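Private note to self, pasted from the team thread so I don't lose it. Backbone tokens:
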């Protein structure tokens, strides 16, 4: 584990900067078009109906990624409102200190995030491809700006539950490469360990909005 002083030097060498491009144009394979569909077993569907979370590995051309699935007692529109309410992320999502939209164009939303724990902040820039009419959103880093992460790729998929009127099925996946060591709470947020936490906050906020 790196000491705080050494970590500061490591991050300083790759400090977030809006005036410089990122160090590369993608080290994690990005989604080209919609994210993959996730086929669920009868046992997994029963777990979702009982209020549980399902975690799966989904294969793609260059490997596999973790996906969390959860049913939410709210409409897809309400769920999308929570996911896309980026200015409210510091209130809704643990370890998010700042979140602001800095550009919009057609189906793209570009967002600056600052996450932090233990006196350490990580700043990064995400380019979201949003297709609400098709029920999905994918993202990569905005490679035109230097981020404190090496890379980040992920997706949300939102769809009504056919046999449960009033419910939405939420799918979430993320793959992140940090730069060096990060504190445990941040590592959880940006890794597979944060999959269920991500669907949990969307469920909490969405269901609270319709009470």
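Design output:
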């Amino acid at each position: 584990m790196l000491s705080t002083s050494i970590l500061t030097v490591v991050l300083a060498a790759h400090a977030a900067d809006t005036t410089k491009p990122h160090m590369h144009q993608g080290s994690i394979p990005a989604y080209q078009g919609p994210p993959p569909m996730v086929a669920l077993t009868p046992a997994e569907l029963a777990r979702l109906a009982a209020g549980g979370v399902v975690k799966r590995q989904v294969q793609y051309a260059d490997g596999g990624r973790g996906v969390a699935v959860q049913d939410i007692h709210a409409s897809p529109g309400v769920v999308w409102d929570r996911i896309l309410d980026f200015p409210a992320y510091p209130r809704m999502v643990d370890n998010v200190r700042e979140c602001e939209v800095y550009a919009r164009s057609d189906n793209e939303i570009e967002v600056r995030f600052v996450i932090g724990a233990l006196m350490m902040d990580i700043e990064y820039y995400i380019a979201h491809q949003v297709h609400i009419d098709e029920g999905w959103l994918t993202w990569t880093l905005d490679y035109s700006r230097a981020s404190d992460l090496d890379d980040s790729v992920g997706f949300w998929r939102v769809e009504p539950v056919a046999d449960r009127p009033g419910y939405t099925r939420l799918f979430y996946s993320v793959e992140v490469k940090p730069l060096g060591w990060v504190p445990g709470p941040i590592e959880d947020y940006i890794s597979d360990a944060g999959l269920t936490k991500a669907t949990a906050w969307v469920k909490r906020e969405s269901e609270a909005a319709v009470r």
